Amino acid sequence: MNLSTEQLAELLAGIARAQQAIIDAIDSENGGWKNTHLLPKVNTAANMRLAVPRLMDVPSRVLMRSQGRVPMDVPTIARMLEEALSGVAAAPAAAPAAKAAVPVAAAVAVPVAAAAAVAANTESTPAAGGDDLSNFFDT
Fold this sequence. Notes:
Order of helices and strands: HHHHH
Distance between the termini: 77 Å
Strand content: under 5%
Largest sheet: none
Number of domains: 2
Radius of gyration: 26 Å
Number of helices: 5
Number of strands: 0
Helix content: 55-70%
């Protein structure tokens, strides 16, 4: 039987979900058990010091991520498995919104910089009220 990376990722996500149910049951009976006893041990098992996880670190990292509010999704687990199998960290996938935002940010940055340069060369006038605040930032 051959499993694809996605199938193995789904299997790991299901195992982490079952483990999380047991952890929640124990923690509801003994409050604080998870933070005091479980998390330090899982953190050690996950070997978070390594940037590229080894294959044996992946299940612990999935379980560690399950302890937060948002558990690891199947594509992320599959990407981590690919990294572990290849031994090379994959480049993070760029968000589609970030690609579209780059030209807009560049187009906005130039007029803002030009406006700041013009504002720096002009002297500000006092506001209505008669107080001269134009020299406040010059001192």
